[in-house]
């Protein structure tokens, strides 16, 4: 195997592990209980989409939501990683969107079914360029924002997370072995809302990165 460059982590074909309801203000806006333990779900590597390519609205949803999130890129794998060593496993970060077919998620929730079709479809994980670890000295205190067609929809700070990044790395690695190239989506702050075909999404981490994506329908 040729040497892989972590700054192109989306090409590694590794796991995307997502944390749900990690911000109390978002849990409340969807009338969900505040979790006492992290809620986890997965996206496949085929969910990645990079700037220059569109976010495609699945044909089966009429309520596709944006969720802006800080992504943590794992640089060194491990199992049962203690919180005290967790940050040694981080290579860097990425700004991410957890695109969610909210109507499908609501239906799955009411039937007690998994969220796969709501969360893991193609292009459900737009990502920014790789952000080296040194560029975000305190990942527990960074401001995230998202605009749709120039209107601010989400603005939050990772200091509002219920479970910290070291806690999440340690918790996840107790159940799922982390590997270099894995990405952890750390949850979204409040302000999630629907997007439509032709919308322009812009998102950023204050003073660090911005990215933009257009929303489209797949060709039939
Ligand atoms: C209710 C959700 O979709 C959970 C989620 O993904 C989040 O970021 O919170
Ligand atoms: Mg999310």
TrEMBL record:
Q: Which Pfam families match?
A: FAA_hydrolase
> Carries keyword Metal-binding?
yes
Q: Which UniProt keywords apply?
A: Metal-binding
Q: Which GO terms describe its biological process?
A: carboxylic acid metabolic process
Q: Which reaction does it catalyse?
A: a 3-acylpyruvate + H2O = a carboxylate + pyruvate + H(+); oxaloacetate = enol-oxaloacetate; 3-fumarylpyruvate + H2O = fumarate + pyruvate + H(+); acetylpyruvate + H2O = acetate + pyruvate + H(+)
Classification via InterPro entries:
Fumarylacetoacetase-like_C, Fumarylacetoacetase_C_sf
In alphabetical order, the GO MF annotations are: acetylpyruvate hydrolase activity; acylpyruvate hydrolase activity; metal ion binding; oxaloacetate decarboxylase activity; oxaloacetate tautomerase activity
Q: Which Enzyme Commission number(s) are on file for it?
A: 3.7.1.5, 4.1.1.112, 5.3.2.2
Q: Which GO terms describe its cellular component?
A: mitochondrion
Start and end of every Fumarylacetoacetase-like C-terminal domain? Answer: 15-215
Family of the protein in this entry: Belongs to the FAH family.
Q: Which PANTHER family match?
A: ACYLPYRUVASE, ACYLPYRUVASE FAHD1, MITOCHONDRIAL
- The name on file for this protein is Oxaloacetate tautomerase FAHD1, mitochondrial
What organism is the protein native to?
A: Scophthalmus maximus (Turbot)
């Amino acid at each position: 195997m040729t040497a892989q460059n972590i700054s192109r982590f989306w090409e590694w074909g590794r796991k995307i592990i997502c944390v749900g309801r990690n911000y109390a203000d978002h849990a409340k806006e969807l009338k969900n209980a505040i979790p006492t333990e992290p809620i986890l779900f997965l996206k496949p590597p085929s969910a990645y989409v990079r700037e220059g390519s569109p976010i495609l609205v699945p044909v089966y949803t009429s309520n596709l939501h944006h969720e802006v999130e800080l992504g943590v890129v794992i640089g060194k794998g491990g199992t049962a990683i203690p919180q005290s060593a967790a940050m040694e496993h981080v290579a860097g970060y990425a700004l991410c969107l957890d695109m969610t077919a909210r109507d499908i998620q609501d239906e799955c929730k009411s039937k007690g079914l998994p969220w796969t079709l709501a969360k893991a479809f193609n292009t459900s994980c737009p990502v920014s360029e790789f952000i080296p670890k040194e560029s975000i000295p305190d990942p527990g205190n960074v401001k995230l924002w998202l605009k749709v067609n120039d209107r601010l929809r989400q603005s939050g700070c990772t200091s509002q997370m219920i479970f910290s990044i070291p806690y999440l790395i340690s918790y996840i690695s107790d159940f799922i072995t982390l590997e270099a190239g894995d990405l952890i989506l750390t949850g979204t702050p409040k302000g999630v809302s629907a997007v439509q075909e032709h919308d322009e999404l812009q998102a950023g981490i204050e003073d660090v990165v911005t990215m933009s994506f257009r929303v489209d329908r797949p060709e039939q």
